[in-house]
Amino acid sequence: MSGALKNIFIIGVFLAVCALTLWVGSNLGGLGYYLATTLILVYALALFFLRFERRVHLERELVMISIMCAIAVASRIAFIWIPHFKPMAAIIMIAGISFGARSGFLIGALSVLLSNFMFGQGPWTPWQMVAFGICGLIVGALADAGKLARCNLTKKQLVATAFMGAAIVLFISGPLLDVYALVSMINLYSAESVIAIMLAGLPINAIQAAAVFLAILILGNPLLNAICRAKVKYDLNASDN
């Protein structure tokens, strides 16, 4: 199996296991979401550390990834006064481009878990961890495949990346959180109830998408280039390839 196919297989199995964990946790009630949160973190950490089992400079890479988590958390807290306008997903995507798909998911999941100590933990936490983790995973996978440059983006590439980030929020991670709202609020589903909840979530997802678009345009190259310089300085190759 080629490296690309192997990564696709691993990511597919990983997301399937996360989905199963969310479903089981949502049906346990009570402390079920704590179990789901813990298990998803274990999955992400396992993927992250397995790829480093033969690497040197692990401590330096962990420090850089911890810094990206801190920046992502700070970006969410800094805009606490603007409802739904949070650029955290953009920081996670930038981290995914720099460090690869698996690390991108880990940074997304950890950033949600840590920031929710201020915004509030609850049964929504594991769903948010997966949703924001997917943001880092998708763009990280594209970077791993050579479809996205890891630094020094041209203006055209930067705008395209910003549009792609906004689309991921609007059509993938945002609707995933709408699914949580659906399963947590409704016992008997109908086409009308599903459409109503999805439409109700659309303005929120659009605001999030706008935040991601602007954040990538403004912060994309500065952060990507700073990370690339740090990789060269410390002789790191912190990607999932």
Explain how this protein is built.
The chain is mainly alpha-helical. Helix content is about 80%, strand content about 0%. Helix 1 packs antiparallel against helix 2 (about 30-50), helix 3 (about 60-80) runs antiparallel to helix 4 and helix 3 (about 60-80) crosses helix 5. The protein is globular. The relative contact order is 0.14.
Please outline the helices and strands.
Layout: H1 3-28, H2 32-50, H3 58-78, H4 88-99, H5 101-119, H6 125-144, H7 155-185, H8 191-233
Helix pairs in contact: 1-2, 1-6, 2-5, 2-6, 3-4, 3-5, 4-5, 4-6, 4-8, 5-6, 6-7, 7-8
- The amount of helix comes to over 70%
Count of beta strands: 0
What best-fitting shape do the alpha-carbon axes yield? globular
* Arithmetic mean of pLDDT: 84
What fraction of residues sit in β-strands? under 5%
User: What is the C-alpha radius of gyration, as a whole number of Å?
Assistant: 17 Å
| Secondary-structure element order, N to C | HHHHHHHH
Uncertain residue segments: none
Largest sheet: none
Distance N to C terminus: 14 Å
User: Structural class, from helix and strand content?
Assistant: mainly alpha
